[in-house]
Amino acid sequence: LPDHLARLSLADLFLDTLPCNAHTTASDALWAGVPVLTCAGRSFAARVAASVLRAVGLAQLVVTTQANYEALAVTLAKQPKHLAQIKNYLTENRRDFRLFDTPRYVRHLESAFVKIVERFRAGLGPDHVVVAASRATD
Description:
This protein is mainly alpha-helical and 138 residues long.
C-alpha cells in the first residue's frame, strides 16, 4: 500500500472512468493528495467517485456530461497552480475528512448495531436506524 500511494502521489490529476467510476482507487488517490475528476452518471457504480469527492469538499470536480468532463480536464491541465492548490488542500486536510475517519465510522456502526439489537429485543420489526453524534467530533 505505501508503494501504491507513493506512485499515486506523483500524478497531477486522476481522470476517473466512465461509465463505472473508481471506488477505492478514487479514495486512494485523494488520500495520496491527487485531485480526482469524475463524471457522475445515473447508476450507483457511476456515482461513487462523486460521493467521495463531495465528502472531501471537492464537488467542483464532479461534472455530469462528457463534454464538461473533457473541458474541465483540459482547463485543469492548463492550470498547474490551481491543481497544486487542490493537492495542497487534500494533503493538509486529509486527516480531518470524515471520509477517512475510520474510528468515527466504527463508533457509528457499533452504535447502529446496538440500536438494532435493542429493537429486536423489544420485539420491534426492522426499521431505519438513526445514529446521532455522541460527541463534538462526531
